[in-house]
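Friendly challenge for the regulars: who can give me the structure tokens for this chain first? No prize, just bragging rights.
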Amino acid sequence: MNKYLLFFLINFVLIFHTALGDSAQVKENCLVKRAAFDIGSGSTKVKVALVDVCKSLIKKNLFEKSIKIDFNEELERSSFSFSENFVDNAISRIHNLLRQAKSFDPTSIVGVATSAIRNSNNGRDFVIKLKTKTGLNTKIITQEEEAKIGFYGALASTKYSKDSILVWDIGGGSMQFMAINDQGRERIQKGKLASVTFKNNIINDIQKSKKLSPNPISKDDFKRSFEFAKNLAAESVDKDFFELIPKKKILGIGSVHYYSVSKQVGKKTYSKLNIDKKIKKLLNKTDKQIGGSYADTQVSNLILVSAFMEQLGIGKVHALRVNNTDGVLINNQYW
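First reply, four minutes later:
Bragging rights claimed.
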């Protein structure tokens, strides 16, 4: 064999193997094990996952859990400040979740806190004490940040393009819509109702009651609360955003869409008709008859979503098992 050809082949093989090694190293460096906490208004969630930080994708879920901690209820009971006993109990329960997450050996752990914490008079004091007691670094995010986290978390979990979707997020204390408009810009709409706030509106404004749950909800309660939610839906969405709705696939994220509405109607993609049929079956039912830890918001959640769908002309919602932890895990700015 010609010595020059041999020299070329040897160098080619060396370069090729080096490139493969570098590629494998890059791929390995892209994979990071992270844990994210979402301290929401009605529940606190944690997710540990293997994340491809180069592609902003969750490669594998390792652990996830949600526990009910009623931050929003506490706010309304205590003049928008968390009591010391409530804070200590909440931190103890979050600390227990943190221990469970740490057993999966994540390289880093962060948390975000949403509506109830940002609206509380002592929300910042809470996250400082949480950091001191547990080591969990938590950022209080704005409603705009929450919308973006939800949108890109949903986008990473679907096959759809970002231009084709509208993400509708309903939690315990806030509601957000986000889509990309015809000019390619992010458009966010902030709703005035959410799961816990709407439930309390029914109790306080519709039923004029002092009880903790709106159930049983009568037919008259339903009609009045439905109209109340429809009116607020009309106020929540600007005309230019409203015009985007027929052009988009509506993705529902957060606990209300996936764990409440979707589970109750037995469909991951549901229509207003599916919801209304379920509402009829649950009117005049008590919490005990409805069952579950979230019985007090189950019927009101259905009414809330049905009213918004009617007012905004939403035909179907595709519910995704996505919450703020998904968006935080893939967003490098939080790490």
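The chain is about 50% helix and 20% strand. Residues 18-26 have pLDDT under 50 and may be disordered. Your move, everyone else.
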